[in-house]
Design goal:
The chain contains 13 helices and 13 strands. The chain starts with 36 loop residues before the first helix and ends in a 17-residue tail after the last helix. The chain is of the alpha/beta class and 522 residues long. The structure holds pyridoxal-5'-phosphate.
Amino acid sequence: MTMNSTGRPTSLSAIDGDVPTQTVSGSKGLLQAEGLLFEIGSTQKTGVDLPAPKGGKDRLGGVTRTASSNLPGLSEPEAMRHYVRLSQKNYAIDLGLFPLGSCTMKHNPRLNEKVARLPGFADVHPMQPQATVQGALEVIEELAHWLMTLTNMPAVAMSPKAGAHGELCGMLSIRAALRARGEPNRKRVLVPVSAHGTNPATAAQCGFIIDEINAAPDGRVDLEDLKSKLKDSSDIAGIMLTNPNTCGLFERDIVKIAELIHAAGGYFYCDGANFNAIVGRVRPGDLGIDAMHINLHKTFSTPHGGGGPGSGPTVLSNALAPYAPVPFIVKTAEGLRFVEHHSDAPDSFGRMCAFHGQMGMFTRALTYILSHGADGLRQVAEDAVLNANYILARLKPLMSPAFEGYCMHEALFSDGFLKDTGVETIDIAKGLIDEGYHPMTMYFPLVVHGAMLIEPTETESKAELDRFCDALASIARRAVQKDPSLKSAPHLAPTKRLDETRAARSPRLKWTPEPPTLKAAE
Ligand SMILES: *Cc1c(COP(=O)(O)O)cnc(C)c1O
């Protein structure tokens, strides 16, 4: 078969008798293939049609461009189509169920967007005099109130801009508290093996030493291993524990763990990324934690992904509250005011970001909270758990649940059922693409072999859950029957198996006028 420079067939007659899975255009069905702006545009073209300027005084002081900028130009319809075609390559929560576990890709109600776009929220500037943004400060203050109430914690730092940033906030607070106690040499932080990668990364970033705790066979923290790590506790700074954990299981021994850590002189950091599974039902403050970030973009909707803004307010116990970062809001006779400077909050560990946090996310999260109310938030958690258990129950006969019993908000399978089939987790994920779904989280958490982690969230209907389960069940059946076509899936996507390692190790981030002829990245 003759191929063009991008690896596509130049003629389909070569594919004798077969149903074509490739096309000459690269487009599939009604999905258009699309090149780079540099490939489809031309320096000779422009979307505007202005007459060349006549005369006029040159005010550029001799720095007028002499050579072409070499930027591609496109007509308006070409530019429009380019971006719309790109947008169609995106899988989105507004297109279908997004089964990624640990990431919580949940529906974002349009009401949130409407409110976030209101003048006074959408156009506030962080340098505006505080007297002119009292409404915005009230949004932050009211959201803070809800977060403290839902967690039963006495303080919250609102400025962290993502979950990982919130972890940094919590761990820097712990470091400051240890220094204030005169125990800066407490450096050891316990982290379960199932932890999200950001946990050990954050602890290391703050200068702590990571000590791993094993998982018990039931997927939870091995309490005996934890106790053995606390035998000599003089260097213990604390523990970072996720609850529900990344296996989608509630850490039943959490109160006991908090007692052990406190008795050892350490602090308890809880990773609250999975708060959406327990919000309204469990208050982390009742469990003995000292700090926990809340991913607004996971628990309280607000969009994320693709590098979009997150928001990670961090609740703190009385022991850590004095060390919270600036800025924070105080109530004064003249209204709400930011405490901005270290000099006004000498115990504070400092400042984490230029301004005051993600205002747009605050507005969306508060809208979500107020439109659900306390009882509605509780139902969010209950429905998320119910949906995950429905998926677990439906797929249990075909796939291998990683652990026995019910799950929380995400269902976790191992690749046990793929033994001796030659099919691997990655092939199941690629098969899902042909079925029109974004794959689930693969190979995480690391404690489960060939892990497949599925989180449906609360808004999926039974019909949609069934549609997804039917698709995944059919792939699981094909795998067990050793269907060789799964090894080369996806067959219907415009691009197939990318060399992801090469893409990550040597990404081509810069367009050069004459790119080397590449083989198809398939
Ligand atoms: C998402 C997540 C994080 C990190 O949150 P970001 O907002 O992506 O920085 C940390 N821990 C767990 C368990 C998570 O799921």
